[in-house]
Amino acid sequence: MRLPACLAVLLLFVGLCAAETHYLYPTNTTWVATIQAMTAGDIAILAPGEYTVNGTFSLNFAGSSGSPITVKGTVVEGNLQTIIKQEANNQNIMNVAGSYYGFYNLTFTCADSCLQGVSVGASSHATFQDLVIHHTNRTGFVASTASAVYTDLTVRRVEIYDTGRDTSECFVFGCTSDRCQVHDSMIELNYCHDIVDTMTNYGVGIVVNTGSYKNTIRNNVVFNTNAAGIRLYDDYGRGVNLVEGNAVTKTKSNGIQVSSGAMVRNNIVANVVSFGIAVSSAQLKTANRYHDIQIVHNTVALSGQADLSLPALSGDSFVVVNNAFLSSTAAFTVGTQSSSVWLKNAYVAGSLPTGVASSALFQVTADVVGETYYPTNTSALINAGTKSYATPVTWDYNGTPRSSSTPTVGAYEYTTATNPGQPIGSTIKTPLETYPSDSYNAEPDDGDDSGNGSGNGSNSAAASVQSWISLILA
Fold first, then answer.
1. Which of 52, 61, 136, 359 has the highest CB neighbour number within 10 Å of its CB?
2. How far does Cα 411 stand from its chain's mean position?
């Protein structure tokens, strides 16, 4: 049966009316309740200022693929202006769970002795983008609730620092002993720094725990941590995790540490106390049974112990190709290798690992790279690599396409006399536009980032008109 045109228009208008845009101000006494009551398609825009909570702040969202729930702060001249502060001790700043939701442009912090920053319960299709989390007493961002499953999380451009003197890390994904799993998620362009006052053995930059799988950890910057920069445990054979394009510097332990089920490529690791890249027996599903590890096109320098630490490995699922190991202490602390794939690795100091063919390594001097670890114009790394291995890398740390036949060894592909990309440093990474990726700037359109509205906790007449026009024109 055909609907009359006027009835169809009316039903369309009713559908539009189902979602609301809330303009909130720090003076709103009901701002927490407003956010807690949001339903599919709702948007909350928080004006500049400090929004305080004094107790549990928990959200459970049920958005949908076409109507996500969105909470946004305000940005003025590139600076975040909206702060959510937890004033209660022994509380997380925010707890959130659900599906199809996102947080953007917000700062989370503690007044004194709160616990975690953003604590995520079971969630799917959730985005956390352009956030700052600081001065917590425990981990800044954690998705680690027992028995939970996390699917399609996006954590992008989140800066975390000063996470306190307790059991704190920057980011934790998944649970120990496979008690929860994070999978098919993107952890990219984040900046973790100055996590130094933690308890012993804590202070990791990014942790992906056992049983979590098919996650991408790329283009993050980790600087000055009390433990490993990036630490991944066994994926339990469910799907390899990718660690790509990260810069890890000044850690008091290993730079990048993995157990099994990991592809580690195009990373720069420098100035770490222990090993630059290490394969560890910690939390393997089966003791001393390693599987599926690729270490390809990394640049490692200034390692306190050695650039690469490997146990005895056997089989072609273990690949070490086109890396630049540039420390003057030692390149390798490596057990006997049997049938593992080693090709075209450069090193400065050390001896040939047992079981590795001499043709798999070539010795260089430390000056093959400049201060930014980009190759000099006469570097022996240029055109010294190979593509003769499974799944060769087609771009570099910056996002520059690699040579189709003889790529540069290490994280960078040499193309110009100076580094065409952003040097590694204490800031969020900005890859070149050629970097093969999804949109780094995906953000729901609300039609107004200014936060201008009535300030009554929901739509005033003027704000309603503005919202409807934005929704109709979007």
1. 136
2. 18
